[in-house]
Amino acid sequence: MALISFKNFTFRYSNLKTPTLKNINLDIEAGQKILIAGPSGSGKSTLAHCINGLIPFRYKGDFSGSLEVKGMKPYESSIHEIRRHVGTILQDQDGQFVGLSVGEDVAFSYENDNVPIDIMKIGVENALQEVEMLNFIKEVPHNLSGGQKQKVSVAGILTTNSDILLFDEPLANLDPYSSKKAMDIIDSLHKNQNKTIIIVEHRIEDVLEHDVDRIILMHNGEIVADGSPDEILSKNILSRYGLREPLYIEALKSCNIQLRPEDKISKIENTIKFKDKLKEDFETNFENNRNTEKNPIISLENISYKYFKDSDYIIKDISFTVASGEMVAVLGNNGAGKSTLLKVISGIARHQQGTIRFMDDVIDKWSVKKRGQIIGYVMQNPNHMITKNIVFDEVASGLKNNGYDEKFIKERVEETLQICGLYQYRNWPVMSLSYGQKKRVTIASILAMQPKVVILDEPTAGQDYKNYREFMSFLEKIKHTGISIILITHDMHLALEYAERAIVMSQGQLIANDTVYNVLSDRNIIEKANLRETSISKLGDICEVKDKSKFLSYFTNKIKGGADI
């Protein structure tokens, strides 16, 4: 008997006219490790909520068919009983924290199970040590960065005795090193504790670096594919439904290499049989990109910042420029000082040493409001920015505060919502949107103001590949109008495809300022900043090319569509 079983299961939320899940038939066996993937709105999170009891106990609706989890029907049980069998990490960590400190939050499961305090303390410390967050045991969860919150959530699930562990976007806010560490932990729970693992995630390549038994692909509320990674990757199923294939798979297919399940290409080392074809394509067609000089719009000169007078500097002696119409990616591990640096540029934080210039003007003493007229800043967590109930009102709020007339505001807001793929939600309550949609709302509210420089902290986290491509294409368009874009990202694919340059930070210091291709083909920088070597770079090793930076540049642009090759 399957551990989890859906039979002809259909579900409709109370506030919607049409079902979100349609005729789901799915069996998951005990001990399996499953990846559930699909574009936004496909129903994958709804499916997960049915398993962990959030449906029907938090989200109400009507259903037909049957669902059993470990022999019980969740909708006939209680959320407390389901929690004993299904442990969950939510995508929006702020909605999951219940403790006043990190330690209290991780101890929540132990407290519910009346675990003795001495055993509880050891378990909490071991869990936090596992995710490298023991030093934060007394910290308030909401003071942590997005990546640190995600680690605490993982620690919390390590303290449960649940047989089924459900991870909803577990990698959304993690740097490359931390995401690998998170997947290592998930892998260990699967192999060593025989847990049944269900992962809902957009970052398919990162998940597939660790073995999974099946990929379940959803679209429009239905299961459209269910197979092994080799079966799914050998076809064009992922791209057909708006999902991103692993980069090395895209590189192989760009060379018209026909893939078969028996090629076992879910493991990159098995691509060695295609080595000659890849190398020939690269050496025959590669041409150097032509870079053009642009005028600096923002200049940082020896910037240092610390929180308190007697504390150590968080960022130290940072100098670089950003040109007009340039897109720059700021890379580095969680806690490297990336977000602090961008808060200093926007004026939210005041640096103690150095100078910042906008064009020829020194802006060190400009107010946040004055800087806000030229520099737009979008925070990592959308819940920290949203102040209005309705989507249209949130995007319009900055324009209203600056005294624009209603006709102008309506036109500007509707145009921005169209561009950001949010127009159909203009009259929706913001809190009814997904986490990724909320992020796009906050980005739209800044773009409506038409700043000269836009700073984005993890702009695409939580967004599916279709929305990611549409939004980044929009950023490229506004970049060509002369607007400069500075973005923090843990997504090496995004940096490769869209940024001309990478600023790399580690321990508050700038350790690299170079093209993204040079940075991500340099193992010393990758290791020092806890970045991730891309699978195209690994293909370069397999093909034994002499210049991996050029190889990386060639296949990145070939995959993207041939620009600048």
Q: Can you list the strand order of the major beta sheet?
A: 5-6-7-3-8-9
Radius of gyration: 24 Å
Shape: globular
What's the CATH architecture name of the largest domain? 3-Layer(aba) Sandwich
Strand segment count:
19
CATH superfamily of the largest domain: P-loop containing nucleotide triphosphate hydrolases
* SS-derived structural category: alpha/beta
CATH topology of the largest domain: Rossmann fold
Largest sheet: 6 strands, mixed
- What is the end-to-end distance? 54 Å
Output the CATH class name of the largest domain: Alpha Beta
Helices, by number, come to 24
Determine the strand fraction and express it as a percent band.
15-25%
Question: In words, what does this structure look like?
Answer:
- The protein is α/β, with parallel strands linked by helices and 565 residues long.
- It folds into three domains: 4-243, P-loop containing nucleotide triphosphate hydrolases (Rossmann fold, 3-Layer(aba) Sandwich), CATH 3.40.50; 246-285 and 534-565, no CATH class; 296-533, P-loop containing nucleotide triphosphate hydrolases (Rossmann fold, 3-Layer(aba) Sandwich).
- Helix content is 37%, strand content 21%.
- It has 24 helices and 19 strands.
- The strands form four sheets. Strands 5-6-7-3-8-9 form a six-stranded mixed β-sheet, sandwiched between helices. A six-stranded mixed β-sheet has the order 15-16-17-12-18-19, with helices on both faces.
- Helix 6 (117-130) crosses helix 7, helix 12 packs across helix 24 and helix 23 packs across helix 24 (548-560).
- It starts with a strand and ends in a 5-residue tail after the last helix.
- The relative contact order is 0.10.
- The model has no long low-confidence stretch (mean pLDDT 89).
